Amino acid sequence: MPSLKQINSRTKTVKQISKITKAMQMVSASRIKKAQDVANSSIPYSAKLYQMMHRLKISLTDELPTNGQKMARQNRNLILYFSTQKGLVGGLNSNVRRILLASPLKENADYIAIGKKGARQLSGIKANVVLKFDLPKAGNLEEFLEVISKEVASLYGNGTYSKIYLLFPKFITTSKQIPEFLQLIPLGNTVNKTVNSGYESYLFEPKPEVLYKELVANYLEIEILNAIYSTEASEQSARMVAMKNATDNAIDLAGKLTHIYNVKRQQKITTEILELSNK
Predict the structure, then answer these.
(1) Would the pTM count as exceeding 0.85?
(2) Is the pLDDT of residue 192 over 80?
């Protein structure tokens, strides 16, 4: 059995941990609102752009590669795998990994890892990671989007991959974030981007092929940007919830240790009194 000194020392340690987790909870809570607003702000534009791309695609006989030339494609997928940059986010990254492992796409895919935690996860399952990036900060976001969108467009345009996907933690609410697979290229319907099939006939100027090629780069950037924003909002929300749970557990444990300390201390006092009375 631990001594009174050991119990007291452990109680102090647990209380210090609760202060740290409480501070981290408050920091994440202060960042959530901004992250949520940013994540939601680009959704209407993204949905409208997607519908425009889909209308143009209907007008084409075949979806064009990004370089505008038809070619034979390798039967292989590319998955942009998003994760948090840091830990202490509960099961957020593990849930994304679980969705990947349950998907048949993983058997014939290469990966671009965006976020340190995801790079480690992919390394753990022996996945073929062709590129690794840290989750970009606001200061270098524009440069990152330009680099990654050009790289993705090039890999698809030269026929290296037949399909390109995004896999990221989608922010729903503060207490709910779910992993989402989104087919980036060729265009594929998603839950939040349903497209009405009953379009009227449109006349395009310039030609649909020209418009489509011009919009591809913008489309890639906005979809990758949405995934980044959603990952950041999910990270802050998951960390706040995880730190709140850690704080509550630490406070509960400190209370139990204090109770044990008081019981042992009372037992010691009672024993000493009995020994004195027996002399």
Answers:
(1) no
(2) no
